[in-house]
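User: These chains co-purify. Model them together.
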Amino acid sequence: MSLHGRDVVSIRDLSREEIVGVLDAARRMIPLAEGSRRSPVLAGKIVAMAFFEPSTRTRLSFESAVQRLGGGCLTIADAGGTSLRKGESLYDTIRMLSSYADAIVLRHPNEGAARLAARASDRPVLNAGDGAGQHPTQTLLDLATIRERFGTLAGLKVVLLGDLKYGRTVHSLAYALAEFGSEIIISSPEGLRLPEEHRDDLKRRGAKVREEPSIDRAIREADVLYVTRIQKERFPDESEYRAVAGSYRIDARLLSAAKPKMIVMHPLPRAGEIAPEVDATPHAAYFRQAFLAVPVRMALLAAVLGPARRGG
Amino acid sequence: MRELKITPIRNGTVIDHIGNGLALDVLRILGVPPLERDTSVSVALHVRSGKLGWKDIVKVENIELSPRTVNAIALIAPTATISIIREFRVREKRAVDLPPKIVGVLRCPNLNCISNQSEPLESEFDVAERRPTVLKCVFCERRVDDFLHHLA
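Assistant: Joint model of the two components:
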């Protein structure tokens, strides 16, 4: 099935084949994302960036993706400057935007906002993160990073480390990895464990999921070590945050026991979870991951907005 | 059929086979009290039932239930049957049936869900599992199995 004209609210809106299709297309987009070739795929198209919550890399990488493909952007980067402050509903704002643009990229603080926007808009809506909910393009670029290094998404051991309770990126990633047949090993400080409903849901889908409280042991068997940031704002007081935040820090000593090809990923920005010395090791994949955001978002935009394929 | 100590009603609705102890929750769904019009309500608690062992029954005069109310009853009391009475005769009798979508009946328990902000929308849940019933918010995907506390 073609992605042309479709909303992408959750990673589960995409079939396995569609995900692979986007990842293949993203690989072909790399020279365009680097600026060494040009493409007119989105020439004459306008994409609205509706960002009702601060975001740097997600918004900039989407804008870069649109412009690399020859399209233009309308950007709301600060909800304070919009009529939402005057009490306008998100529904009405999206209705209005959908008459100004060919597609809408939405970041919003409330869970489910993207699903609502998709209903309000007759143009495709791409979810760029709604509250603690879904963030499907982050998942796609995570998958692209893993696939680029290993050539596959199956049969890998992926350790998810850190805030597995609030970190929206890891929930979607865990679902997708399970779908492709990789094993998920979860390792998190007490109090930030994967919510039971997610773990049960993953197991119901036949995913291989287990817990490994020892970071050392987890690192030794990992193919991928996916580290998340512990979000300070979630904690009631600073001392409690420090206790958890200091509970893991990936450094060269910890990584000395890792497999040679193991990669360390992080959605960035990091806040001390990964020591700067790791950047120089062959394990560091997080800056590549940040770069791949552009070709992956280009591939998705081109699929949703570009010329309809025959049979699509 | 065992004779009950409740007088028959001329027009209205009999909600039978309510799980033991759930009648008062059903009344809450019906919005009783307050009552309007010339309505009387009979409640029978802890009645012997061949099917359920014990059951509750609610009879409401001069009211026929809206589909939304029936859906809410289906969530709280899934074994209930509903009979429409006209001129003392049962005109229609059916088991409550949970439709695949529940619209406007519950509030999403996730306070940060877009359905709990001031957007022009009705709450909407898909039935994720049956027996026991688990619903999933179509917006934020939160799962709900405690319905009584989240009635809209």
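The two ends of chain B are 37 Å apart (CA to CA).
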